[in-house]
Design a protein that fits this description.
Layout: E1 2-10, E2 13-21, E3 31-39, H1 42-49, E4 65-73, E5 83-87, E6 102-105, E7 110-112, H2 119-142, E8 150-153, H3 159-170, E9 175-179, H4 185-191, E10 195-198, H5 200-203, E11 214-219, H6 223-231, E12 233-241, H7 255-259, E13 263-266, H8 274-287, H9 290-295, E14 297-302, H10 303-314, E15 321-325
Parallel strand pairs: 8-9, 8-11, 9-10, 11-12, 12-13, 14-15
Antiparallel strand pairs: 1-2, 3-4, 3-6, 3-15, 4-5, 5-7
Helix pairs in contact: 1-10, 2-3, 2-8
């Protein structure tokens, strides 16, 4: 038996509890992992609260991330004792996830835990930080360079935004952070942001083309914020879009793309191929200072505490990352 958060659906609605689960109930897979830590991402918040139908079958163990140690394997790449990380692949949505003490899954979905990080540190990064690295890679691979101008990071106090600021500064970029929390200015400055703007200046409908400012953008917000970011991006700049905290709509025109040559780079973390994942985690291992990483950890919580924390996360009350010690 092991402990895990279990989501069920009844005629009366969704139920969520920390339950004792028999190992025989684990789904099919060729690798079993003893989980050390997981984390809470926006999608986990949606799953646990039932705010959006991200869970595709029941019962479900949520958690789109985990780090731990292989306990059993029939997969050629993994053996007992290997330290591994999992991000995405539909885990926590259609396949049991990481908010439990054990997980069983397809070994193709795993990558080796970088030696630079402990399991706790890897989950302080989690899908949010891994997505931030994918966004930075997208801008750099596109050809955006530090001498071309400022980079805007929206949703900057969130998990994606916080790590994006750290990585961009390390790569030599000048970063402007957008946030609705004036009280977090010192936090963002400590991460390395050169200046702060109020997210309200981006959140409402604006003109299709606006004054050029950004060489590049990392956007985790979507909707009008993404539209305005594109409208303010400089000629031949690029916008890496990875989230929809404000909304999934994109009420824009083609003007920034055909008159300024702006590139809109979609960034998906769930189904990204292994080569892209390894590039992102290599960037994190090389450029993310462990002491700086501690600054983005909001707090460490237990499985039971993760259930109420999911609501706080969706309400924007959490700054940075929540690490879940599944053995507490």
């Amino acid at each position: 038996m092991f402990s895990g958060i279990l989501i069920n659906k009844t005629d009366a609605g969704q139920t969520v509890e920390v339950a004792k689960i028999d190992e025989s109930q684990l789904p099919e897979g060729n690798v079993t992992v003893d989980v050390d830590c997981s984390t809470l991402n926006y999608k986990d918040g949606l799953a646990i609260t039932g705010s959006s139908p991200v869970v595709r079958k029941f019962p479900m163990v949520p958690g789109i991330d985990f780090a731990g140690v292989v306990s059993e394997s029939s997969h050629p790449d993994w053996k007992r004792g290997d330290r591994v990380v999992l991000n995405g692949w539909g885990v926590g949505e259609g396949h049991w996830g990481g908010l439990a003490q054990k997980a069983r899954l397809n070994g193709d979905w795993l990558i080796a835990l970088p030696k630079a990080f402990t399991s706790r540190q890897a989950m302080a990064i989690g899908t949010a930080g891994y997505t931030a690295a994918l966004c930075v890679d997208a801008l750099v691979n596109y050809g955006i360079k530090p001498d071309q101008g400022e980079i805007l990071v929206t949703g900057a106090t969130g998990g994606v935004g916080s790590v994006a600021v750290l990585l961009l500064v390390k790569a030599g970029f000048t970063v402007v952070a957008a946030t609705g929390k004036a009280s977090e200015e010192s936090y963002l400055k400590d991460l390395g942001a050169s200046s702060i703007i109020d997210r309200a200046t981006l959140a409402e409908k604006g003109k299709p083309l606006q004054k050029e400012r950004w060489a590049g953008v990392v956007d985790a917000v979507g909707s009008h914020t993404l539209v305005n970011a594109c409208a303010q991006t400089r000629y031949c700049g690029a916008v890496a879009a990875c989230g929809l905290a404000q909304g999934a709509d994109f009420p824009s025109t083609v003007m920034p793309f055909i008159l300024r040559g702006v590139a809109l780079l979609g960034v998906d973390s769930v189904m990204a191929p292994k080569s892209r994942r390894l590039q992102a985690w290599n960037r994190l291992a090389k450029d993310l200072d462990v002491s700086a990483l501690e600054a983005v950890i909001a707090r460490e919580i237990s499985l039971a505490e993760a259930i109420p924390a999911a609501s706080e996360l969706l309400q924007g009350k959490i700054r940075g990352r929540l690490v879940v010690d599944v053995n507490k």
